[in-house]
Design brief:
The protein is 84% helix and 0% strand. By secondary structure, it is mainly α. It starts with 13 loop residues before the first helix and ends with a helix.
Length: 465
């Protein structure tokens, strides 16, 4: 099989392969968060607290819609990874051909629905009147850019499924730098308000997707599709939908809980909304390595399942656990000592009232999450490994458990306990999901003919004999 920039994850040390594959992903996710962070920093410093609260209040609905699209794209990439592990070039190309048709159709449908329902969504979430205009101006343009988001995530998912996690990073760096320039130009120079931040994000995403398309066509001979490869095949499309839709629904179901929680936060006023916005931005930045672990685990599991090596999948899970555990300890110290300084990036230091009221609340919100990063590690690791094994429907159950936890906090505990309940909603959701994911993981591994503890015992007996 011609590989070129592709990378085989079915041979060699799992720890070394995972670390080398994951690091570019971490940097890529950091730059992806950079898009949103720059928007928030510029909005908070130049447009004020109400604008910051308005943009921040769209985070959960943004996650609902874009999470659906990104989850679908991630699920579509798993059969490609499995075919690569099987050395089935023809099947791989036909999956990619069907992905193009499905991706275009889904992007068009979601764009039309969300743009039509945008104002209704914000009304349902009880967005305060003083922040409603900011929220609408921002999220409407973000929804307009859904095709650009789908383009990048679909193509970068294909590239990563072939073992190349570095190239998408390069394109993200370039587009993120462009995003910075456009943010400042649109908001500060052209006075476009929060809409300028949204347009900067849309254009940057579009450019990163176009770069992925150009690179993919030139660097991967295996992906040069013929007219026959581009023919829509329902058997391939059904397999893609069976993998992609559950992953997308898992993100969306999780986001429903976030929307219920955000609705409760909106009821606490602009200060609480701004505090959650600033704390969430730092939190999402800190969580990038866990997201990278999940994506790495899915690709690693998909390739090794295709190669018929389930024992390597568990070895990969153990390597990810070690790396994630070390990072969780490091970031706990960082959050404790420097979390407040990071949060001030999103606030105007000359606004003494905002600094006095919002900063302590935001730091409390951040630390409540950081303390529980180990449960978050396992949410990402186990969920994505299960998906890489082909059991995407189980991710929906895990997402439902997260939704129930966040929804319960938003509907019941926030009105009673106030902002403290907001802080611990996500940690409760992670723990709830883990209670399901651990037994689900071992059940899926057993179905692949590998039971970790039995394997170790039998191995020791064989050596003794």
């Amino acid at each position: 099989m011609q590989k070129n920039s592709a990378r085989d994850l079915t041979q060699g040390s799992p720890m070394g392969l995972i670390l080398s594959f994951m690091l570019p992903l971490v940097f890529g996710l950091l730059f992806q968060q950079f898009y949103s962070m720059v928007d928030t920093v510029v909005v908070g410093k130049f447009l004020g607290v109400d604008a910051l609260a308005g943009v921040g209040s769209t985070g959960s609905i943004n996650f609902l819609v874009l999470g659906l699209c990104n989850g679908i794209c991630a699920g579509f990439a798993i059969p490609v990874a499995q075919k690569f592990g099987q050395r089935d070039e023809e099947g791989l190309r036909r999956f990619v051909g069907s992905m193009i048709w499905l991706g275009a159709g889904i992007a068009l449908l979601v764009t039309v629905v969300t743009m039509t329902m945008c104002r209704t969504f914000l009304t349902w979430m009880r967005t305060p009147e003083e922040t409603f205009g900011y929220a609408f101006d921002y999220i409407y343009i973000i929804f307009l850019g859904i095709p650009a988001t789908m383009l990048y995530n679909l193509l970068s998912g294909i590239i990563r499924s072939l073992g190349d996690s570095r190239t998408p990073l390069v394109f993200l760096i370039l587009s993120s730098l462009l995003n910075v320039v456009l943010d400042v130009a649109f908001i500060v120079s052209f006075h476009m308000g929060v809409a300028g931040a949204a347009w900067a994000t849309l254009l940057s995403q579009l450019i990163s997707g176009a770069l992925c398309l150009i690179y993919m066509a030139k660097a991967f001979p295996i992906l040069r599709l013929s007219r026959e490869d581009l023919r829509f095949r329902w058997s391939y499309a059904r397999r893609l939908l069976n993998m992609g839709l559950p992953m997308g629904l898992q993100y969306s179901i999780t986001a429903i809980g976030s929307i219920l929680l955000q609705t409760a936060v909106n009821g606490l006023g602009a200060a609480a909304m701004a505090a959650v916005t600033a704390g969430s931005k730092v939190n999402m930045l800190c969580c990038c390595p866990f997201d990278a672990i999940g994506t790495t685990a899915a690709t690693f599991a998909g390739q090794n399942l295709g190669a018929g090596k389930p024992e390597r999948i568990h070895e990969g899970a153990k390597a990810c656990t070690v790396l994630g555990g070390i990072y969780a300890l490091v970031i706990l110290a960082v959050g404790h000592y420097w979390g407040g300084s990071l949060i001030t990036l999103f606030l105007d230091p000359e606004d003494a009232a905002a600094m006095a009221s919002i900063l302590p609340m935001s730091h409390q919100f951040l630390m409540a999450s950081v303390i529980f990063y180990v449960p978050l590690l396992f949410v990402n690791l186990l969920r994505f490994t299960i998906q890489g094994l082909g059991y995407s429907e189980l991710a929906v159950i895990a997402g439902a458990m997260e939704m129930v936890a966040r929804g319960a906090f938003g509907l019941c505990l926030v009105p009673w306990l106030g902002f403290r309940a907001v802080c611990f909603a996500s940690p409760a959701a992670w723990i709830m999901a883990d209670l399901f994911l651990f037994p689900a993981y071992f059940s899926c591994m057993k179905k692949q003919g590998y039971v970790p503890h039995v394997h170790r015992i039998s191995g020791k007996r064989a050596k003794a004999q």
